[in-house]
Design brief:
25 strands, 9-stranded mixed sheet, about 475 residues, Rieske Iron-sulfur Protein, globular, FAD/NAD(P)-binding domain, Alpha-Beta Plaits
Length: about 475
């Protein structure tokens, strides 16, 4: 089903690319990150073309819960521990700036997008120490964080950590307000990007080629494997949302830090109730919180529905949808040069985790400044070339084991057109999902999510295989 954002916003339809053209910058992807980058480049007087394979905001931007916050889980203490206080302060400083920049843009352009300031809350139903330590870490980094033991949630909690003066909005109405003057081509899926070795690139789609000196990969998960090797440094994670009418209304929003924690966020008279996340392509055989099989294990949607019925018996489901997030080895996005020694003028913004609203704004600022020729030293915390802390080694190992297992699976199986991994059937959404890198296909093999860029194809001997 559609999200409440796609059902309540009408965005101008753009033509697809027809023929070849030149530009200073090509941005691949017209989600929030790509649109914001185009908006900032236009403000700087830099000519940019945005190419979108589907419709504006049709990817993860239209599936978010749209929290604009620097409260990215219990992240402050982790950042201080693995990268030190200075880099941790840089990270949260960018997020706090992003919240204020959204508010500034909304006021400047008088955008009606339901923007409002509110509190962001983490909660735990099982313990207190984690949020106590996080409160101390956040305050030490300059964040106004208040530790409490009570809140408006309809069940007992052990601890709550409140970040004051966060925000929420309608992401597609916001995009509509800043995208009208941008040069965007929809239904123009990029198939290949060729670098000429002399500082120019040809961005190739089925309907035309754009030649430019700068290329920005704002397409959620980069589809170019070498250089960069982002496929080895990320995986994708799915989570689920129910839009409920007649449920409780919350002044702020809440996220549980426990393994089975839920997300709560009001949007007018609708409550967005989410959770039950899992690695894309996981079968769910070992975790009843996120999958269904023939034995009747509960799906993510079913688990959310059961919990909603328990909390608000009279509530009615208005919609349901799922989202997909790119997860990096250390939880920090990759924002910066794609691979500086091999592809001059290529930039990437990916790995936003569950926090795409603030990270999109941060990415747009960093990349637009780099294209202009300005360097922001504090942005080094996001550099794709940073040295990953030892805490990321375990995650890297899991990613590689998953890839090896699925690449070595039996020959006559459905395989992803990205790198050939075995696809797994997702019964709750009726899709074929890749456990290696998160590409998704419908029942007929049509592409839904990247990094794959092509549908599956029929082969009489082997069934649906890669090309």
């Amino acid at each position: 089903m559609n999200s409440i954002w796609t059902d309540t916003a009408v965005l101008q339809k753009r033509n697809s690319l027809k023929g070849d053209l030149d530009a200073e910058v090509v941005i691949i992807g017209a989600g929030l990150a790509g649109i914001l980058t185009g908006y900032m480049l236009k403000k700087k007087g830099i000519d940019a073309v945005i190419l979108e394979g589907n419709r504006i905001g049709s990817g993860q931007t239209g599936r978010t819960t749209a929290k604009i916050t620097s409260q990215h889980g219990a992240v402050c203490g982790k950042l201080i521990q693995i990268y030190g206080r200075e880099k941790a302060k840089h990270y949260v400083g960018f997020q706090e700036w992003a919240i204020g920049e959204y508010e500034r843009i909304v006021k400047e352009h008088e955008i009606s997008c339901d923007f409002m300031r509110c509190n962001g809350n983490l909660y735990s139903t099982t313990e207190e120490e984690t949020l106590k330590r996080e409160a101390e870490a956040a305050n030490g980094l300059g964040i106004q964080a208040v530790y409490r033991k009570e809140c408006e949630l309809p069940f007992p909690v052990k601890s709550v950590l409140t970040y004051e003066n966060q925000a929420r909005f309608h992401p597609l109405k916001f995009i509509k307000g800043i995208s009208e003057e941008l040069r965007i081509f929809e239904e123009t899926r990029v198939r290949k990007v060729l670098y000429d070795g002399q500082g120019k690139s040809r961005v190739m789609s089925d309907s035309g080629i754009v030649t430019a000196r700068k290329v920005v990969f704002a397409c959620h998960f980069p589809f170019v494997n070498v250089p960069g090797y982002y496929f080895a440094r990320m995986h994708q994670s799915r989570s689920y949302v129910l839009a409920l009418k007649g449920a409780q209304s919350f002044e702020g929003y809440y996220l549980g830090i426990d393994g089975d924690g839920y997300s709560f966020r009001s949007a007018g008279d609708i409550l967005l109730f989410g959770g039950c996340g899992h690695r894309t392509g996981e079968s769910g055989e070992t975790d009843s919180s996120f999958a269904a099989d023939k034995k009747g294990v509960m799906t993510g949607y079913e688990r959310l529905s059961d919990k909603a019925q328990e909390l608000w018996p009279d509530a009615k489901e208005a919609s349901r949808w799922s989202a997909q997030d790119c997860m990096t080895l250390d939880g920090i996005p990759y924002i910066g040069e794609f691979s500086p020694h091999r592809r001059k003028g290529w930039y990437v913004m990916t790995g936003f985790g569950k926090w795409g609203m603030t990270q999109s704004m941060v990415s747009a600022r960093i990349i637009s400044c780099m294209i202009e020729g300005m360097r922001i030293p504090e942005a080094d915390v996001f550099s794709p070339q940073r040295n990953i802390h030892m805490s990321g080694v375990k995650e890297f190992s899991v990613n590689q084991k998953t890839a090896v297992k699925n690449l070595a699976s039996p020959k006559h199986t459905k395989r992803c057109t990205h790198m050939g991994c075995k696809l797994a059937w997702n019964p709750q959404e009726g899709t074929w999902d890749c456990p290696c890198h998160g590409s998704r296909f419908d029942r007929e093999g049509r592409l839904l999510d990247g990094p794959a860029i092509r549908d599956e194809v029929k082969d009489d001997a082997n069934g649906l295989l890669t090309i």
